[in-house]
Amino acid sequence: EPEAKKPEIALPEKPKPKAKPKPVPPKRDLAFEKQLREQAAAEQRELQDRQIRDLAAQASAALRNKALLQWTDKIRAKIRGNIILPQDIPGNPEAIFDVTLLPTGEVLTVRKRQSSGHPGYDDAVDRAIMKSSPLPLPDDRSLFRRDLQLKFRPQDR
Of 42, 78, 91, 125, which one has the greatest count of Cβ atoms within 10 A? Predict the structure, then answer.
């Protein structure tokens, strides 16, 4: 018997997948990138400038504080030289005085802020402050302070 021919059925051909187009890289905005680099550089310079200013201010403040301490040390040394200590002071109590100065270094007022607990010592310091007038002035006149707080202890020499 003759072989039965299979009817040819035309199968639709599967469409071949289309090649995906390669993604087009976005065009570089060179002007924008340059602007970003310049802005970052400017911010970096500003940060460095601020750090330098801060360090300079800290150094200036440290020098100023050192000069103020030296000035108050000179004042306390002059006053200590005029303190006549009472004989019976127990321990090393601290007396604190507020002193108001004139621009010439002359003592205008003395006020006991905190007693040492020994009236004889407090009075001796008060008298020594008045006797020491005029007090030394700072080398740098801009450091002058009209109101000072001075601390004294009998054993501080």
Answer: 125
